[in-house]
Each structure stands twice: as C-alpha cells, then as structure tokens.
Amino acid sequence: MLHLRRAVPDDAALVLRFIRELAAYEREPNAVEASEEVLRAQLASAKPPFECLLAELEGEPCGFALFFQSYSTWRGRPGIYLEDLFVSDARRGRGVGKALFSEVARIAVARGCARLEWAVLDWNQPAIDFYRALGATPMREWTVFRLTGEALEGLGRSPG
Length: 160
Description:
This protein is of the alpha+beta class. It is 35% helix and 24% strand. It has helices at 12-25, 36-44, 96-110, 125-133, 149-157, and strands at residues 2-6, 51-57, 60-72, 77-87, 116-118. Strands 1-2-3-4-5 form a five-stranded mixed beta sheet, with helices on both faces. It starts with a strand and ends with a helix.
C-alpha cells in the first residue's frame, strides 16, 4: 500500500538520502552540499524554505517530492516550483511518482496557484515521457539560467 506524508524535521536524513540518490541518477553524485543538520533546521524553522512529501510503499520509504512557492507576476498569483521528484529505482513503475506529482498538483490547486513548474534535464527521456503522459507541456522557448559560486558572490558584492 502506498502512503504519502509530509516530511518533518526528524526526516532530514531520509530527505538527504533521496537528494543524494537523485544526484547520482542525474550524474552529479558529488554535487550535494546539503547536510542533515541544515535540512533538519530548515524543516523545523517557522518559515521553511521548502516543503517535502515522502512516499512509503509497503511501509518502506521509496521517494520524495520537494517543492516551494513561486509567484507569477503575469497571473498575479502564487505558483509551486517542484525542485525534485524522485522514486528509488527498485520502486519505479508502481505509481509512486504519479502519486507524488498528483499530490503536489492537488496542493497547488487548493492554494489557488496559477501554475506548477519544474525543470527536467534534456537527456532524461523517462522523466520527459512521464510528464508528457500527465499532460505537461515543455516550455521550449525558455532557457534556464543559473548564477552560483564565485560569479554569484562577486555580483552580490558589487555596488549595483
């Protein structure tokens, strides 16, 4: 039986485990900088920077969906950005990913969100096929940019 629940501070190690499994799947196993302590503190904070759903199949943790609120200036309404959706390899194909994704969509609808958005690596055809089967549309005219590390620090210190 599949059970979904919200992550609590005591789930920090499990959330980190799934983050690391996802990083390995996405060919970046050494890129994770998050720690159990940081995730625990964030989950326990008055305004956590993210929300997380955990999936358990037959009593065993098998996946997660981590998301946070975004905002659409054009629609004048909040949205949800799905940062991570991951199901352990041994549990794929059993409806876990769809259940997690559907629950995030249900939360978005309940909150009056204008959209649910996420990014997919262009080589991840199984994920692309999964999202298309759920009715999602790729936004091909948009290019994602990212500023990190020294570039972010340098720009952040410059006087405008």
